[in-house]
Fold these 3 entries.
Entry 1:
Amino acid sequence: MFDMLQFTFIQNALLSGVLIAIAVGIVGSLIVVNKMTFLAGGIAHSSYGGIGIAIFFGLPILLGTTVFALLCAGVIAFLTLRKRERLDALIGVIWAGGMAIGIILVDMTPGYNVDLMSYLFGSILAVSSADIWFIFIVDILIVGIVILFYKELLAVSYDPEFATLRGISVKIFYTLMLLLAALTIVAAIRVVGLILVIALLTIPTFIAENFVNRLSSMMILSSLLAVVFTICGLVFSYFYDVSSGASIIIVSILALVLVKGFYAIK
């Protein structure tokens, strides 16, 4: 097993997996507590439009996807706060529209034949130094914001009315959480892809909430679980030559089933 560590691409994959686990643990906790899973899914799938734009105009894919994902997150935040009665339909339009834009622009790009499946389902073994630096910067940004505004995020997550009475802008912090979700989704593209990223964002938190009842503890435990799932999934994919992103998610789901099953028969 330890022989695999001699390869540079395995070392990069492990490092990126640990780094992204920090982001998904923290942001995933905020998403689950605030019941934003569907909104995050809309951001994730619509982000494919950013990939198409980057490819079509010859821009760095991380840059194009990040800008587009943040834009979609901003639009979704605006709609969530203003148009709640038709939110599901509006998110569906953004979801489908973003993917359609990406597919059309990729099809229109002359001579482009790179396998786009890695962006949809992940390819952690192909992670680059630029990807690692991007994930690291996202981690620093997320950790810094959470430390700086933890009390505000806690209040908005569990008691928005109390937060409003305390003079905390619920709209601003709600939008901030969606923007952090967008950055995390983009950072996780190489690890599990846009299609599976929501599972990695939510499953560790679903498990963690069975053992802790504080937001800070949930973030820490979720991150640790995400590290374990990523490493186990990577090892499984290496030895059985299967998709790394799907392997990480399967390991996560198995852990979730075991925990929920234990509590069901307890």
Entry 2:
Amino acid sequence: MEPLNLPHRVAIIGAGSWGTALAVHSARQGLEVTVWARKAEVAGHINNDRENPAFLPGLKLPASIRAVSDLGQALAGQKLVLAVVPSHVMRSMAAAMAPFVERGAVLVSASKGIEDESSATMVQILEEELRPKYGLELGAISGPSFALEVARGLPTAVTLAMRSRPMAKAVQSLLSAPVFRIYTSLDLVGVELGGALKNVYAIAAGICDGFSLGLNARAAMLPRALGEMSRMAVAMGANPLTLMGLSGMGDLILTATGDLSRNRKVGLRLGAGEKLSDILAGSREVAEGIRNARSVRNMALRHQVDMPMAREVYRVLYEDKEPRRAMVDLLTRRLKDELDPRYQSFGPNREMSG
């Protein structure tokens, strides 16, 4: 099969830190880059000052990046579009994009989150709002990727999931670089869940570190968090091995331990005794784990998946439960086997007989 070819240009919908970082990377790849910014003043800074001071201050942007605040201009003639907006506005943005999206375009979500009301992933939202009418190829890109490091050209690896392997290969070829290595996957649900769920556990890790519980405690909670993530992935039809990769374990480790993580910072401040309302009042950028804690809790109830750590984060954020009480309740649960009973028949955990 002949490889698919895409034009050497891309539209990036969203001029936050991650959207700007992807624009910088794409420009370095020689692509013609158009960025849509919600605020005209942000587009003006990018075009006139070659900087986005609101989200990546001090970083000089390539001259080939063009910013607009008109969706029609951003999407005109574009065959590859990256949607990089906060998860809670993805549906309204998809509706706003609808009149301008080119038929047969490739639309890749680079946003990580779950919709509150429906528990839909970002690609599911795009599919509901756009795909039947426009015949779009949809995908999601996710993995351990702090925006600032990508913008600086530091080595990063991510996963791109699409239902069409040839199209995934085409996007991979266009956007990959030695310092931005893209792996492909057909497991859209697993890749999206990894990127969304890890935000909740990054808050839990921050609370743990805010209490100064030590490295042992953090190292214990991360694989237990991964276990919860994998259970949800299986319940939604994903491959649990996807959660062992970049979009699951990789992103969890980065977001739960990295100093650039907004979700970890929220947890640290909660663990230090600050109130969530005070934390939110002084924050410019969105910590997706706050919203996702409610979405994940609703998803767990809907699919009847046991997610005790995610449940306690929800109670801290939305029911004013004391973080220390939540930690104690987690640590004093009944003792159990490490592996899910469904997997006890494999390997050395198999019951001996005779």
Entry 3:
Amino acid sequence: MGMLANVKLHARRSRAMTAYQSDLLRLLDERGYIHQATDAAALDALASREIVPGYIGFDATAPSLHVGNLVSIMLLRRLQQAGHKPVVVMGGGTTRIGDPTGKDEVRKMLTNEAIDANIASIRTAFEQFLAFGEGPTDAVMVNNHDWLGKLGYIELLQEVGTHFTVNRMLTFDSVKLRLEREQPMTFLEFNYMILQGYDFRHLSKTMGVRLQMGGSDQWGNIVNGVELARRMDGTEVFGLTTPLITKSDGSKMGKAVSGAVWLNRDQLPDYDYWQFWRNSDDRDVGKFLRLFTDLPLDEIARLETLQGSEINAAKIALANAATEMCRGAEAATLAAETARKTFEEGTLDSNLPTVEVSGEISLVDALVALDFVASKKEARRLIQGGGARINDQGVSDENAIIAPQSAPAKISAGKKKHGLLSFS
């Protein structure tokens, strides 16, 4: 059957297992993180007897990660909470290639300077979730360009390429789906899975890393690394994936109506981050509390029993806990108070999202500037549908202009989005 078939068999067996012995797998199982594992029983035994260094890779395509990356970050946090060592691998090398998984388009090439700047910015978010240092369970961040950038092409082909067959690479979803949609895939992108597999092998050899984790769409890439470490070094390493995390409406995590929900404050205000969680669908609250907060499971179980309007208390608990973890306690407190004043008292608060303008501005442009909508076309639809307000007064004219004399101008989109215009 081959190694890959055996790995899949272990994965099915792990989903049927409930009595984990290690703190790590018990914690991950209780909070709903486990989808597949290459050999759950062996990993469970390893984590019971020694510290397991585990890693997840993140490409540096933007100055910030977003909420869609958060389940992976939380996996590393849970790893550390269970007494193991998180290794954050920044893709300084693989970002130059581009992960084709789930993509129909070739990734835009970034300069070395842009990638380095993105990595420095992204690290600030990780420092909110992980304790970095030099201790045995302290987190470390490494850059895969440090080793991939030194690989000679002939060396890579000889040492690594011989362990991959084109036949099998063509069966991987990241390749197969792109080809089925008749979308181009460059030879550069085709090499991504080889480099990711090499990452795992390199980390196991140089840092003793025994575990790679990631989303379910990374299963094939992770298995490649498990096999490569075994074939090249005879090392037993493990892979674990999480389920695909989507919202109950079927949309992807990390996306709001107006765009990505960024983790870094300079990419998204604290209030907007808080509101993303506060606006969660009722059906998602329990799952999100388990995955994205440290609230005790018995407290989460209590919050899940709330019905009707009382579910808002659970949503506020989710927003407060998630925001405190990512942005700090003060940010969570200010965001919650801003929301209370806005929704309960109907008053303006300086912590609302604010855009400064130098003169009159159309309501359409104001809605776009505040990131309440993704486009002017969407803004016009909102206005035509009666969903836009200026200073709590409904506006149906899509050509409405807001003059400086209206300052301060409160702009609202629907019942949940409010912001201010400041005129200079």
